Amino acid sequence: MMFLLVLPVLLIFFNMGNVGIRFTPGYDAFTAPQSAERFNSKYGVLKAFKWGDLSYVNSPASVEHNLKYEPSFFGFRKIGSSAFSLLGAGSSLTGNSLDVTGNPEESYGVSIYTDATKLYVDVQEFLGFSKISATVRYYLFVDRAQQFTGEGGPVMNDRAGLRFVPAGKNVFTAKEYEVLFSTKYKIIQYYPESVKSDTLMLPVLFSSPLDLDNDEYTYVDFTHGFTFPPFFRAWYHTGDNVWKEIPYNEIGQYGELPNDSPFINYEISAACNEEKIRVLFKRRSIYTTGSEPYLSGIFSAQTITVLVIPYFVNLLEGAN
Amino acid sequence: MANELVFHPASPYDYFASGSGGYGESVGFAIVGKHNAGYEYILDGALRFPYIPIPQGYSVDSAQLNIYAEYVGNGSGGNLRIKMYGDDQDNSPTFYGNPNPIGGRPRTSAYATSTDIKPSVGGYRGIDAREIVNEIIGRPGWTSGNAMSFILLDNGSDIGHFIDDESTYKSRLIIRLAAEPNFYPTPKSVGAPTFPPPYNYGVRFVAPGYNALTSPDTPEITLFSTKRRCEFIKSENVITTQAGVDYYIAHGIQGKPRGEIYFKKTGGSYRFRGPRTFSAIQQGPDIVDGNVRVTNTYIIINTNEDCDVYYRIFLDKIDS
Questions:
Q1: pTM higher than 0.90 for the full model?
Q2: CA atoms of B124 and B101, how far apart (whole Å)
Q3: How far apart, in whole angstroms, are the C-alpha atoms of residue B173 and residue A287?
Q4: Is B295 exposed, middle or buried (0-12, 13-18, 19+ CB in 10 A)?
Q5: Contact yes or no for A161 and B205 at CB 8 A
Q6: Does B213 touch chain A (CB under 8 A)?
Q7: I want to staple B1 with a disulfide (CB 3.0 to 4.6 A). Which of A19, A38, A246, B182 is the partner?
Q8: Cα–Cα dist B274/A108, whole Å
Q9: pLDDT above 90 covers what percent of chain A?
Q10: How far apart are CA A135 and CA A117, in angstroms?
Q11: Chain-centroid distance, C-alpha B62
Q12: Are A258 and A248 in contact (CB under 8 A)?
């Protein structure tokens, strides 16, 4: 590994109570706010050590990590050749909606999960639809996703590089999952300038005996400025300033139902390609004349604020 | 998109029937027309619709009363003829213990007539109710949320032509407030960010085999660079959740921090990453949903099963 170290505006401080390294380009490192930091050895960061693609065809797919604990992870479902959608909720991007490639796409029932030895991609039956095939780009982190203090973590094969550990730990013997930062791993970084938000106005939506099935789709496209489909996260709030991470899918029913059909569907999902991140909304209301009468689900008018953060990680990058 | 409001009777006391001769009066069903041969009662009825959320003085674009045909007469070749008035009161009371709607209540000056063959069982007879509805809503004493009733008088139906709804709650009042066209919200787009200009100072770590001074700055080559910001981990911990309960965790950040949660069902084998909402999915024994909401003070964790939840809070905020 090679590294470049040019130090016109670097602070390495060893004053009483202030030990470590802090980078704050353009600011006095002694007084800069935390928001100006590009790095601070006091804090840990997420450390990706393994990434690649897993494909579900007719049975769950898995990859071994053998960390002996359940690690943090992230997954994106691959759409076509160069687009990716967030996982975590059933996505029915069909009909009038478009994925970022311009083709309708579905992500029903795609799940990603882990245990102490493997990461899995699975597809469950969703709303009675047939199981689909799915390829997932996964990222496995050294960082834990469970309370664990035993022996485990990636094996450190060589001692080259830079490594920070918490106060009180030995930098040579600390467990990998205790490490705050290490040049052996990919660090998920972002440009603060990339954080973008916008608002959408969604009207009242409902169905009636004269108009039985209504849905609407709309989206916000964020041009991310990279030349690759980026690792990203997205959030939304509905005017209450309580942020919720995307994706989200709600399927609700009203009244006493003669069958299991959904009657409202409220879904927020997101996908990216080499050009943009699209945050997509879908609302659907069905009025049924089954054996019992009842009103359709009614969606109030909403103002929704969405926010995306693309990271400097290429989802098409070769596996590690 | 539909823009009609649909209302139904809510109790048997919202139904009234009376007839000539020995037919008598009753709540619990609404009937209008002329009974079958051998009986030939002249039948009158009333339907009441509670909670009409339309403000006083509003002029609706259209309104229609649909009488549901649970039973119909056995006549053929004739017509069911109906004359309909409104109960001209600010807030129409139920038909139980209150003045008889046929002879004991004031009627609107507006009325509507309907002449047609009787509907089939399971169908509807629709009557234009716009003028009646607007007259009632135009009363100075009308208040949004009040109830309105419709008085249904036989208007010379042929023998064996009647319609009868016996508290099915399928009769409906359909009101369109305004002739709004259906439309889809307009998508939006947000332009690319302006990245900081390149500079030749800082720290950069590159993948093995690459020259840190000369290799391009791509995600595949650069493992870490002070040109971009890391997400700093403030704290990590675990909680045990009960299904459906919100858990409030003070994050201590001024603003709304990014975070993540990983959860495993109590006694389960697999750990999932939030958010996760697959409410309609076929749930296996280990499948679990969970989400987190972020306010200025708390992260709020919720899972749909009892879980072990590992959470991580970052210094970096969602919206700054």
A1: no
A2: 22
A3: 15
A4: middle
A5: yes
A6: yes
A7: B182
A8: 17
A9: 35
A10: 20
A11: 21
A12: no
Three-state DSSP class for residue A83? strand
Q: Tokens representing A199?
A: 């608002």
- How far is residue B122 from each of residues A6, B33, B64, B163, B294, measured CA to CA in Å? 82, 17, 18, 11, 50
Answer whether residue A157 shows pLDDT above 50. Answer: yes
The first and second tokens of residue B83, run together, are: 């004359």
Terminal C-alpha separation, chain A: 15
Which one of B224, B299, B304 would you mutate to disrupt binding with A, by most A Cβ within 10 Å of its Cβ?
B224
CB-CB under 8 Å, A221 with B190? yes
Round to whole Å and give the CA distance between A22 and A39: 6
**Predicted-complex ipTM score:** 0.88
**What phi, psi does A125 have (nearest 5°)?**
-65, 135
Give one word for B268, left, alpha or beta, with left for phi > 0 and alpha for psi -120 to 50: beta
Neighbours of B214 (CB within 10 A): 8
Is residue B52 within 8 Å of residue B136, measured between CB atoms? no
pLDDT in tens, B199-222: 767 888 888 889 988 899 999 999
Helix (H) or strand (E) holding B136: helix B130-137
Q: What is the pLDDT of residues A160-213, one digit of tens each?
A: 678 899 888 888 888 889 999 988 899 999 999 999 999 988 877 777 766 777
pLDDT band per the 50, 70, 90 thresholds, residue B320: confident
Q: Who's near A240: CB < 8 A, 6+ residues apart?
A: none
Residue type, B207: A
Per the prediction, chain B carries an average pLDDT of 91
B317 vs A36, which has greater pLDDT? B317
| 8 Å CB contact of A223 and B191 | yes
CB-hemisphere CA count at 13 Å for A107? Answer: 35
Nearest to A4 among B169, B212, B229 (CB): B212
User: How many of the other CB atoms lie within 10 Å of CB of A17?
Assistant: 5
Residues 6+ apart with CB under 8 A from B160: B34, B35, B36, B37, B73, B74, B75, B76, B78
The candidate with the shortest Cα–Cα distance to A120, out of A111, A107, A131, is A111
With vertex at residue B99, the alpha carbon angle to CA B96 and CA B103, rounded to the nearest 5 degrees, is 125
Contact B271 A10 (CB under 8 A): no
- Give pLDDT tens digits for A264-277: 778 888 889 999 99
Q: For residue A293, what pLDDT is reported?
A: 43
Provide the pairing of β-strand A276-286 with A213-223. Answer: antiparallel
Q: Could you tell me what percent of chain B has a pLDDT over 70?
A: 94
User: Could you report the per-residue pLDDT of B71-115, keeping only the tens digit for each?
Assistant: 999 999 999 999 999 999 999 999 998 889 998 999 999 999 999
Q: Does B186 touch chain A (CB under 8 A)?
A: yes
* φ, ψ (nearest 5 deg) of residue B63: -150, 145
List the one residue out of A185, A74, A156, A152 whose CA is nearest residue A119.
A74
> What does residue B95 show for φ and ψ, rounded to 5 degrees?
-95, 5
Which chain B residues are Cβ-neighbours of A29 within 8 angstroms? Answer: none
